[in-house]
């Protein structure tokens, strides 16, 4: 049998449920602009009914919980795209910095190569002229200097990139520590059946940051979360984080270690992978190209100079300090060997006025001395490669940014707070609350009626 | 709720679009300012490489021009030296003809011999002409090429060598720039110094003057033949200069095709960028700042 008191308790229960639902709305509106916030929605369920005889009496509504609206799969895709973007962003911005060295100017490598060979052409018109000979030495010095400077700039950039590797590893460690701490809080709350969505939102934000830095895979179980790099190295297991370490390698750069294992070459995306790619491949590749060009030129010119005779009638010696056989590191060190302009071997027969060997020296300009190409063609191909890398990388970056924006848009359409929607909910909850309050008032009147009945008969 | 939710925050998309427009405007402005469509390799990688090759070719052409300028000075000096030698030898011939006449007194012939001795020194000096400190008829030697040597029948010894220099004045174009003095002045059967020496002896002894006039005439003819080399060389450098000028022009046209900024296109690009930017800003400004909350009483 139902009673007025039973009805009263259903109505007050409804008021409590609507009030709880209003809490969700209120929290959503408050966090409308909070990054990473996922909107909450109240989960209202019908209370278990009571069956008395042939009649089933409903027992009103219960606010079971407040649920955050998430899409874990979408979140995962965003994290992956963020890793891709982190890597591309680092790679492209480093290349853009490097390509400045290969942007044309009046004093760049090809200009100095041209100047050097022009000075030789001038010398051929008057091979005994000391000021023309000095002109050749000066041009050779300028050529060596521009190689030194360009190589030094690229090496400096490599050193800076190495510093960024160390800093990024520190950031990764900070983030994994924070995520592990959140994991502990989340599992504690969930263990006692409480809502941990605020912490989960924070953790999603941190995982997003971490994804920008390193290729991270996440495995979620009931109460815990495991983060590993894509090759399986654990970063966070539940409440425990595993720090990455750096160690100086043979080339003086920092390698990345996870629990004693070198994972430098195994990192595939994120800022850290981008930095390592730039530091270990892109920049050394460019420096090696310059080494090939500088050593090719120096070897060919030394050989050519040795074929002739200097102004003293002696066979020509080295014009440039000879490069190592491998050519490695030569662009950084190339220097003119001689300071006496008379030592330029212009003569082909030992007579002072002969210019026959100048043509041999000048022919190096059009000889295939570097990578099977002429000096200027080889340099042009370096520039074309740098340009292509920047241009392709930028295109990939733009595509990745577009994909990320779309994914975030999609996530926003699922988890973002819409004020209009919240206003509608507020109106709904308010009117339901009002109605329940009206029911309470009515039941109160009914009870008054019952009580007054007693007064009349008594 | 069955309707599709839309992202309540369209701002990031619009901001990205705005960034991109700003980047485009910056690029366009840079191209306009520099007049070049390639301001860094990534603007046009193949074009940037082409620019380097074209610049190298262009500076090589400039270098050939400047070499031609230098050797032309040497050629002109040589040519005017030949001119003087010819004049002097012609004077020697007329003196010889005069002396062979037989009507001259001994004193007159002595005077002729003296003048011929002067001519001999003049010729020696001409054969030792230098240009910017370098003897032009010494072959590739740097010493004075013709020196007085009484032990020689001609009284003059060639101290230079037979070396020949070439100067590159075009891609694979090597121009010979000198003829050794021995080849010019000591021609077989046409030795200028021997001919003059013989003439002086003949005038002094008044015997066989006519034969020495013929001898000097042969030397003159031979030297005139040698002079053709320098005339030809000057012609060659002139036509090469014309060719190099055309080449430089063509290279700069190619450079312009590869890397020149298209001002008309850039100007219209700038305008359309500005329009798009204004429209995007307008769109951002029009994003409703209100919501249903504002209408609830």
Please explain how this structure is put together.
- The complex is a heterodimer of chains A (458) and B (297).
- Chain A has 458 residues and is an alpha+beta fold.
- Chain A has two domains: 4-69 and 419-457, no CATH class; 76-406, no CATH class.
- Chain A has ten helices and eleven strands.
- Chain A has helices spanning 4-30, 72-99, 109-125, 130-191, 197-213, 270-306, 330-333, 356-362, 375-415, 419-457, and strands at residues 40-46, 50-52, 55-57, 61-68, 216-220, 225-229, 234-237, 240-241, 244-248, 254-258, 261-262.
- A four-stranded antiparallel beta sheet of chain A has the order 5-6-7-8. Chain A has a three-stranded antiparallel beta sheet with strand order 9-10-11, with helices on one face.
- In chain A, a hairpin with a 5-residue loop joins β9 (244-248) and β10.
- In chain A, α2 (72-99) packs parallel to α5 and α4 (130-191) runs antiparallel to α5.
- The model of chain A has no long low-confidence stretch (mean pLDDT 92).
- With 297 residues, chain B is mainly alpha-helical.
- Chain B has a domain at 72-237: f41 fragment of flagellin, N-terminal domain (Up-down Bundle), CATH 1.20.1330.
- Chain B contains seven helices and eight strands, in the order αααββββββαββααα.
- In chain B, the strands form four sheets. Chain B has a two-stranded antiparallel sheet. A two-stranded antiparallel sheet of chain B has the order 3-4. Chain B has a two-stranded antiparallel sheet with strand order 5-6.
- In chain B, β7 and β8 form a beta hairpin.
- Chain B is rod-shaped.
- Chain B starts with 10 loop residues before the first helix and ends in an 11-residue tail after the last helix.
- The relative contact order of chain B is 0.15.
- The interface between A and B is large, with 67 and 58 residues.
Features:
heterodimer, A: 458 residues, alpha+beta, 2 domains, four-stranded antiparallel β-sheet, three-stranded antiparallel β-sheet, 11 strands, B: 297 residues, mainly alpha, f41 fragment of flagellin, N-terminal domain, two-stranded antiparallel sheet, 8 strands, 66% helix, 8% strand, rod-shaped
């Amino acid at each position: 049998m139902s009673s007025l008191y039973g009805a009263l308790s259903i109505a007050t229960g409804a008021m409590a449920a609507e009030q709880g639902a209003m809490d969700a709305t209120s929290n959503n509106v408050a966090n409308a602009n909070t990054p990473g916030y996922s909107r909450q929605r109240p989960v209202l369920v019908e209370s278990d009914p009571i069956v008395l005889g042939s009649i089933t009496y409903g027992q009103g509504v219960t606010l079971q919980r407040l649920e955050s609206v998430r899409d874990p799969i979408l979140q995962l895709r965003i994290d992956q795209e963020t890793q891709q973007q982190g890597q591309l962003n680092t790679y492209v911005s480093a290349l853009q910095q490097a390509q400045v060295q290969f942007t044309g100017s009046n004093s760049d490598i090809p200009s100095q190569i041209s100047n050097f060979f022009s000075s030789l052409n001038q010398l051929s018109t008057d091979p005994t002229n000391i000021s023309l000979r000095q002109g050749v030495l000066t041009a050779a010095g300028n050529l060596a200097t521009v190689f030194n400077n360009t190589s030094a700039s690229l090496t400096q950039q490599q050193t800076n990139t190495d510093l960024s590797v160390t800093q990024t590893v520190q950031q990764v460690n900070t983030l994994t520590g924070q995520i592990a701490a959140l994991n502990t809080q989340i599992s504690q709350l969930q263990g006692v059946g409480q809502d941990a969505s605020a912490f989960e939102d924070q953790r999603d934000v941190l995982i997003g940051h971490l994804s920008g830095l390193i290729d991270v895979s996440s495995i979620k179980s009931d109460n815990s979360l495991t983060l590993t790099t894509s090759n399986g190295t654990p970063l966070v297991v539940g409440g425990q984080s595993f720090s990455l370490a750096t160690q100086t390698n043979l080339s003086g750069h920092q390698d990345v270690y996870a629990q004693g294992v070198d994972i430098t070459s195994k990192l595939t995306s994120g800022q850290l992978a981008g930095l390592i790619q730039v530091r270990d491949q892109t920049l050394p590749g460019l420096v090696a190209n310059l080494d090939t060009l500088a050593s090719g030129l120096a070897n060919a010119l030394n050989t050519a100079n040795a074929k002739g005779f200097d102004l003293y009638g002696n066979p020509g010696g080295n014009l440039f300090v000879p490069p190592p056989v491998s050519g490695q590191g030569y662009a950084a060190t190339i220097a003119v060997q001689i300071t006496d302009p008379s030592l330029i071997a212009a003569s082909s027969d030992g007579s002072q006025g002969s210019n026959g060997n100048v043509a041999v020296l000048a022919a190096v300009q059009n000889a295939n001395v570097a990578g099977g190409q002429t000096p200027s063609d080889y340099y042009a191909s370096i520039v074309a490669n740098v340009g292509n890398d920047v241009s392709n990388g930028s295109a990939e970056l733009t595509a990745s940014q577009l994909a990320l924006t779309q994914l975030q848009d999609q996530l926003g359409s699922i988890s973002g707070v819409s004020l209009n929607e919240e206003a509608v909910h507020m109106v709904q909850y308010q009117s339901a609350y009002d109605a329940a309050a009206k029911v309470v008032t009515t039941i109160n009147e009914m009870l008054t009626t019952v009580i007054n009945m007693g007064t009349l008969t008594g | 709720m069955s309707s599709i939710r839309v992202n309540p925050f369209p701002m990031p998309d619009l901001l990205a679009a705005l960034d991109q427009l700003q980047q485009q405007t910056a690029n366009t402005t840079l191209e306009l300012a520099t007049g070049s469509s390639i301001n860094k390799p990534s603007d046009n990688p193949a074009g940037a490489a082409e620019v380097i090759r074209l610049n190298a070719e262009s500076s090589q052409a400039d270098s050939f021009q400047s070499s031609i300028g230098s050797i032309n000075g040497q050629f002109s000096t040589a040519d005017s030296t030949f001119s003087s030698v010819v004049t002097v030898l012609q004077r020697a011939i007329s003196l010889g003809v005069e002396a062979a006449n037989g009507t001259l007194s001994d004193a007159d012939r002595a005077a002729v011999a003296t003048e011929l001795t002067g001519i001999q020194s003049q010729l020696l000096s001409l054969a030792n002409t230098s240009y910017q400190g370098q003897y032009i008829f010494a072959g590739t030697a740097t010493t004075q090429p013709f020196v007085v040597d009484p032990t020689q029948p001609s009284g003059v010894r060639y101290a230079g060598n037979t070396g020949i220099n070439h100067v590159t004045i075009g891609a694979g174009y090597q121009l010979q720039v000198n003829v050794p003095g021995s080849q010019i002045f000591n021609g077989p059967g046409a030795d200028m110094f021997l001919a003059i020496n013989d003439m002086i002896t003949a005038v002094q002894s008044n015997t066989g003057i006519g034969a020495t006039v013929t001898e000097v005439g042969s030397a003159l003819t031979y030297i005139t033949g040698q002079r053709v080399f320098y005339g030809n060389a000057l012609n060659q450098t002139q036509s090469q200069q014309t060719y190099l000028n055309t080449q430089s022009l063509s290279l700069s046209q190619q450079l312009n095709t590869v890397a020149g900024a298209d001002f008309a296109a850039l100007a219209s690009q700038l305008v359309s960028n500005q329009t798009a930017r204004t429209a995007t800003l307008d769109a951002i400004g029009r994003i409703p700042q209100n919501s249903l909350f504002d209408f609830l009483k």
